[in-house]
Write a structure and sequence with these properties.
heterodimer; A: alpha/beta; seven-stranded mixed sheet; 20 helices; 17 strands; B: OB fold (Dihydrolipoamide Acetyltransferase, E2P); eight-stranded antiparallel beta barrel; 21% helix; propionyl-CoA carboxylase activity (chain B)
C-alpha cells in the first residue's frame, strides 16, 4: 500500500503520461509505470551528459587553450535557436582494449543542421573532449548521415575540424570511416559547397577530407594540418621542425597553398565564416545569391581614371581597382598571402555575388607562375560549378620565366588556368587595364575563350610581347632599334590592335566600369551555355 | 598682411593668428587674432606698411611678428609673396588678394583705401596634412586616396586643394592635402562650421591629421583663445593620443555602433532571390549587444522603434535615428535629436569596425551576448618584440647609413637618416647592442615598416 501511494504521488507529477488510476490493477501496473518514468529520466540524463561531451574537466582544458567546445562553436556559427541536432545518442560499438566501458553519447562529433542568416547548412563539429575528437566508426557514421542528407536537399556542408586523427582502438574500422567520408566529399564536389574550418589538430589521413572540400580555413596558433607530424618527420628525415612550422596557419596560407585564409581565434573564425557563407549559393542548381543593395549600380568611380600610372612600368595595386568597382568596397579575398601575384576573391555587384580574378602588378609585375595559375584555376572552377559570374581584371606581362618555373612544370600548371577559363560557362566579363601580352593574354579570360564581354581601358596594351623583345626579334641585327622600338610602341602598345579585330567589345572610360559591368551582368544573368557531354574531362593536373 | 602698388600706396589687410604650429610649421590659422586689440593692430599695420614702403615693395606680402604677453611686438621676417593662409584674410576683408596682385603687377593703383578694409566676421583655416598626428604631432604618410569627398556641401566652407579621389600622395612633395577654411559671423560660428566640416571630410587611403585638428578646435584653451607658439607641447605634453572620449561620448559611440551592426546583420539576411525551402528568420525587435571600444566593454539594450533605435547604455537612453548605409562613407545619424556624423573608416567583418568619431578613429567590435560570452575564452595574442629592429617610421629615402654589421652601437645612437617630404629623420638604436644586419644602403627607398637595421 505504501508503494502504491508513493507511485501515485509520482504519477501526479507526470499526469501527461495519462496513467489511468486503476488502483485495482496492482503491483504489475505500477512497475510498468515506473519503467516508463525511468526511461524518461534516462533520456534526460543522457542528454545532459551528451551536452557535456567528455566532461567539464576536459571542457576547461579546451577553454584554457583558447579553444571553444564543439557545441559552443555550432552555437556561434548558426543562427540563434536554429540548430537541430542528429544522433545525440549514437555511441561507438568498439569492444577492444576496454573501450566498451567508455561510451559517450554522441561520441566524438556533434552533427546536425541549422540556418546561417536564414539559409540551411549542415554541420559537423568534432569534439576534442571525447577521445581527443578521434574518428571512430560511429563518428564517421554520424558525419556520413548529414553529408547524405545535405546532398539530398541541396545544402552546403561545413566541417569544424578538431580531431587527433583515427581512433587507434577502433583499428581498420576508423580507416573505413574516413574512406566513407572521402567518398562523399567527392560525390558532393561541385554539387553543394563544402567548407572546412580547421580549429585544432587535423593529421594523418584525416587531412584529405579538407583537401577535397572547396575551401579550407584555419585558426591561427591553435590549428595544424599535416600528414606526418614532427615526431615522425624527425625520425625518418631527421629534420627538426615544430608543429606550427610544419603545418600551422602561416605555413598553409603562405607557403603550401593548402588553406585559403587564417583567422585570429575561434570566435573570429566563426563570425567570419557566417559572412563568407553569405556569398555562396546553397547548391549548384541555385543561381548566385543576390542581396538588397544600397550602393547605386550606376555609380561613376572617378578615382579609377588615375589608378593606372602614366608610366607603363610603374606598379599599382589591383586591389584599388577591385574595391573601386564592387559594392560597398567589401571584398572577401581568398588566399591573400599565397601567390600574391594574382588576386582572387568574392565581391558583390549590385547585390549579386561575383568571383573576381585579377593580376597584381605590384608582385612579380603581375606575371603568372605555377602557384598563381593553380590558385586562379581552382577558384574559377568553383565559381563555374556554382553559377557565380566571373569578373577578370587583366594586367599581365606574361608567364614568369626561369628554370625554377620550367622545371616545376609551369607548362602543366599554366594550362590549368587556361583550361578553367575556357571551360567556364558562367557569365564572364573581362577588363584589360594595362598589359595583356603573349599567351597570358589568351589565358586571362580572353574573348577567344568564350569571354562574354571584354573591355579595354585606354591604358590597355594587347601585344605578343613588350616592345624591346619584339624589336630585337623582328629587326634582328638592325642598327636603329631604338627608333623601331618607338614605332612598335606606337603601333601596338594600345588597345587598337585588339579593338579593330573585335577581340575587345569596347574601349571604355575607367570611371564607367562599374556601371557597365552591372548592366552586362543583368543581361547575362539569363545566359545559357553548355559544354559537350562527357563523363568528365582530362584536365591537366 | 600688406598690399602695395607701384605708386607708393600701401595698406594693411589686418593680421592672421598663426601660433598653432608643429616643428615650426603652421597648422591652424585664424583671422583676426583673439589677442590683439585695435591699438596694437593699428601699430603693427602701420609698421608693416612703413617697412614695405621703405624697401619700395609692391604686390602682396606678409610681415610676421612675434607678440609677447604684454602686447609688445617684434619683427620676425617678411614673406614677400602670397602665403598659404591668405584665404582667411580674404574672407574677413572681402578682398580678392590674387586679383589685386594682378592689378598691381599691371601697374594699376590700389583699389581700396585703408578705411575701407573692414574686419567682418571670423575665419579659421586648418591645414589638412597627410601625416600621422600620433607620431610627434605629424609624421608624413603616403598612399593613394581611395575615397575623397570634400565637405563642400556645408555652407561657409572653402576647400583649396590640388587633389581628388584617386590621387597619389607621394614622398616627393609637401604632405598637404588641402586648406580647409571656414567663415562665420563670429569666432564661435566659424569654429562650429569648421568642426562640422572636419567631421564630414572623407579621406581614405592616407593617414591624416584631422583627429588632431578637430581635437584642438574643441579644446578649452583654444576655445578661449588662449594660444601661443608653445600650444601643442603644452596642451599635449605626452604627444597627441587621439580624442579622449568621455563616458557619455563613449556610450553614444556604442549606441551608434549598435545601429551600424544591426543594419549589417539585417542586410546580411536580406536575400532577394531565395528559392526552395528556407526558414524565414523571425524578425527580432529586441537585442542585448556588447560593444567593445578598444578594450572597454559597453553593454547595450536595444529595441527597435517605428523610425528609430532605442539604445540604453549604462544609465543613459539614446534615440538613434538615421540610415547607416554602408554605401556612403559618411553616416549622418542623430542621437536624441542632435546630429552626429560618423565615418566607417574600415569594415573588418565579424562585427569589427573602425569608426571615425569626433575626428579620431576608434576600433569598435559589436558582439551578440553569446559571442561575447564565448569570446572570454579567447587568448590574448603575444606582441612581437621590436626593440631589436630599427624600422622606417614612414616611407622615404635613406640619406645616410652610419653603421655596418658587427658594429657596436650605444642606446640612442644614430644608425641612419631618413628623408621624406622636406624632412630629415634621424633613426636611433633603442638599446646597446651589436648590429646584426643592415638591410638597406644610402640612396635606397624604404617603405613604412621596413626593417633597416637589425640588432642582436
Amino acid at each position: 500500500m505504501a508503494t502504491l501511494i508513493r507511485s501515485l504521488s509520482k504519477c501526479h507529477r507526470f499526469l501527461h503520461y495519462a496513467v489511468p488510476l486503476q488502483v485495482t490493477r496492482g503491483a504489475k501496473t505500477m512497475a510498468n509505470v515506473e519503467l516508463t518514468l525511468d526511461v524518461k529520466r534516462r533520456i534526460d540524463n543522457t542528454r545532459q551528459q551528451a551536452l557535456l561531451g567528455g566532461g567539464q574537466r576536459r571542457i576547461d582544458v579546451q577553454h584554457k587553450k583558447g579553444k571553444l567546445t564543439a557545441r559552443e562553436r555550432i552555437q556561434l556559427l548558426m543562427d540563434e535557436d536554429s540548430f537541430v541536432e542528429y544522433d545525440m545518442f549514437l555511441e561507438h560499438n568498439c569492444a577492444d582494449f576496454g573501450m566498451e566501458k567508455q561510451k559517450y553519447p554522441g561520441d566524438s562529433v556533434v552533427t546536425g543542421r541549422g540556418t546561417i542568416n536564414g539559409r540551411t547548412a549542415f554541420v559537423f563539429s568534432q569534439d576534442f573532449t571525447v577521445f581527443g575528437g578521434s574518428l571512430s566508426g560511429a563518428h564517421a557514421k554520424k558525419v556520413c548521415k548529414i553529408m547524405d542528407q545535405a546532398m539530398l536537399v541541396g545544402a552546403p556542408v561545413i566541417g569544424l575540424n578538431d580531431s587527433g586523427g583515427a581512433r587507434i582502438q577502433e583499428g581498420v574500422e576508423s580507416l573505413a570511416g574516413y574512406a566513407d567520408i572521402f567518398q562523399r566529399n567527392v560525390e558532393s564536389s561541385g554539387v553543394i559547397p563544402q567548407i572546412s574550418m580547421i580549429m585544432g589538430p587535423c593529421a594523418g589521413g584525416a587531412v584529405y577530407s579538407p583537401a577535397l572540400t572547396d575551401f579550407t580555413f584555419m585558426v591561427k596558433d591553435t590549428s595544424y594540418l599535416f600528414i606526418t607530424g614532427p615526431d615522425v618527420v624527425k625520425a625518418v628525415t631527421n629534420e627538426d621542425v615544430t608543429q606550427e612550422e610544419l603545418g600551422g596557419a602561416k605555413t598553409h596560407t603562405s607557403v603550401s597553398g593548402v588553406a585559403h585564409k587564417a583567422f585570429e581565434n575561434d570566435v573570429d573564425a566563426l563570425l567570419n565564416l557566417r559572412e563568407f557563407f553569405n556569398y555562396l549559393p546553397l547548391n549548384n542548381t541555385e543561381s548566385s545569391p543576390v542581396r538588397a543593395c544600397d550602393d547605386p549600380w550606376d555609380r561613376l568611380v572617378p578615382g579609377l581614371d588615375t589608378v593606372v600610372p602614366l608610366e607603363s612600368t610603374a606598379a599599382y595595386d589591383m586591389h584599388d581597382v577591385i574595391t573601386g568597382i564592387i559594392d560597398e568596397q567589401e571584398f572577401f579575398e581568398i588566399m591573400p598571402t599565397y601567390a600574391r601575384n594574382i588576386i582572387v576573391g568574392f565581391g558583390r555587384m549590385n547585390g549579386r555575388t561575383v568571383g573576381i580574378v585579377g593580376n597584381q602588378p605590384k608582385v612579380a609585375a603581375g606575371c603568372l607562375d605555377i602557384n598563381a595559375s593553380v590558385k586562379g584555376a581552382r577558384f574559377v572552377r568553383f565559381c563555374d560549378a556554382f553559377n557565380i559570374p566571373i569578373i577578370t581584371f587583366v594586367d599581365v606581362p606574361g608567364f614568369l620565366p626561369g628554370t625554377s618555373q620550367e622545371y616545376g612544370g609551369i607548362i602543366r600548371h599554366g594550362a590549368k588556368l587556361l583550361y578553367a577559363f575556357a571551360e567556364a560557362t558562367v557569365p564572364k566579363v573581362t577588363i584589360i587595364t594595362r598589359k595583356a601580352y603573349g599567351g597570358a593574354y589568351d589565358v586571362m579570360s580572353s574573348k577567344h575563350l568564350r569571354g562574354d564581354i571584354n573591355y579595354a581601358w585606354p591604358t590597355a596594351e594587347v601585344a605578343v610581347m613588350g616592345a624591346k623583345g619584339a624589336v630585337s626579334i623582328i629587326f634582328r641585327g638592325s642598327k636603329n632599334q631604338v627608333e623601331q622600338e618607338a614605332e612598335y610602341v606606337e603601333k601596338f602598345a594600345n588597345p587598337f590592335p585588339a579593338a579593330v579585330r573585335g577581340f575587345v567589345d569596347d574601349i571604355i572610360e575607367p570611371r564607367t566600369t562599374r556601371m557597365r559591368i552591372n548592366k552586362d551582368l543583368s543581361v547575362l544573368a539569363d545566359k545559357k551555355l553548355k559544354n559537350p557531354w562527357k563523363k568528365h574531362s582530362n584536365m591537366p593536373l | 598682411m600688406v598690399l602695395c602698388d607701384k605708386h607708393g600706396n600701401s595698406l594693411y589687410l589686418h593680421e592672421r593668428e598663426c601660433s598653432i604650429q608643429r616643428r615650426n610649421q603652421k597648422v591652424i590659422e585664424e583671422a583676426p587674432s583673439t589677442f590683439l586689440d585695435e591699438e596694437t593692430r593699428k601699430a603693427m599695420g602701420d609698421q608693416a606698411c612703413r617697412l614695405a614702403n621703405a624697401v619700395g615693395y609692391d604686390s602682396a606680402g606678409t610681415v610676421e611678428f612675434l607678440v609677447d604677453k604684454h602686447k609688445n611686438f617684434y619683427f620676425l621676417e617678411m614673406n614677400t609673396r602670397l602665403q598659404v593662409e591668405h584665404p582667411i584674410t580674404e574672407m574677413i576683408t572681402g578682398v580678392d588678394i590674387v586679383h589685386q596682385m594682378l592689378r598691381v603687377a599691371k601697374g594699376h593703383r590700389l583699389l581700396h583705401a585703408q578705411e575701407n578694409i573692414p574686419i567682418e566676421g571670423w575665419a579659421i583655416e586648418c591645414r589638412v596634412y597627410a601625416e600621422d598626428p600620433f607620431k610627434n604631432f605629424g609624421m608624413p604618410s603616403i598612399g593613394r586616396l581611395s575615397r575623397y569627398v570634400e565637405p563642400l556641401h556645408i555652407e561657409n566652407t572653402r576647400c583649396d586643394s590640388g587633389i581628388m579621389e584617386g590621387s597619389e600622395i607621394s614622398i616627393y612633395y609637401d604632405p598637404m592635402i588641402c586648406k580647409l577654411v571656414t567663415y562665420g559671423r563670429n569666432r564661435g560660428l566659424a569654429r562650429e562650421t569648421m568642426i562640422k566640416s572636419l567631421d564630414s571630410y572623407v579621406i581614405k587611403g592616407v593617414t591624416h591629421n584631422i583627429p588632431l585638428l578637430r581635437d584642438i578646435l574643441t579644446e578649452k584653451r583654444f576655445v578661449e583663445g588662449d594660444i601661443s607658439t608653445n600650444y601643442l607641447p603644452e596642451v599635449f605634453p605626452d604627444g597627441f593620443k587621439g580624442k579622449q572620449l568621455s563616458i557619455q561620448e563613449n556610450q553614444q559611440l556604442a549606441a551608434m555602433a549598435c545601429a551600424i551592426y544591426l543594419k549589417d546583420e539585417e542586410r546580411a539576411s536580406n536575400f532577394v532571390n531565395l528559392k526552395g525551402s528556407h526558414i524565414p528568420l523571425t524578425p527580432k525587435s529586441k537585442w542585448i549587444l556588447n560593444v567593445m571600444i578598444g578594450k572597454t566593454r559597453f553593454e547595450a539594450q536595444v529595441s527597435r522603434g517605428a523610425d528609430r533605435l532605442k539604445v540604453t547604455v549604462g544609465d543613459n537612453n539614446f534615440d538613434v535615428k538615421g540610415n547607416p548605409s554602408f554605401a556612403s562613407p559618411l553616416m549622418d545619424l542623430s542621437i536624441n535629436g542632435k546630429q552626429r556624423l560618423l565615418q566607417v573608416q574600415l569594415r573588418n567583418g565579424g562585427g569589427k569596425y573602425e569608426l571615425r568619431f569626433f575626428g579620431t578613429v576608434y576600433p569598435v567590435q559589436v558582439m551578440s551576448e553569446r559571442a561575447y560570452d564565448l569570446n572570454q575564452y579567447m587568448l590574448e595574442k603575444k606582441q612581437v618584440d621590436t626593440s631589436a629592429l630599427v624600422m622606417a617610421p614612414m616611407p622615404g629615402v635613406l640619406k645616410s647609413v652610419s653603421v655596418a654589421a658587427g658594429d657596436l652601437v650605444a642606446e640612442h645612437q644614430e644608425v641612419c637618416v631618413l628623408e621624406a617630404m622636406k624632412m630629415q629623420n634621424s633613426l636611433v638604436s633603442a638599446k646597446v647592442a651589436k648590429v646584426k644586419k643592415v638591410n638597406f644602403k644610402t640612396g635606397d627607398t624604404v617603405n613604412e615598416g621596413d626593417v633597416i637595421v637589425e640588432l642582436e
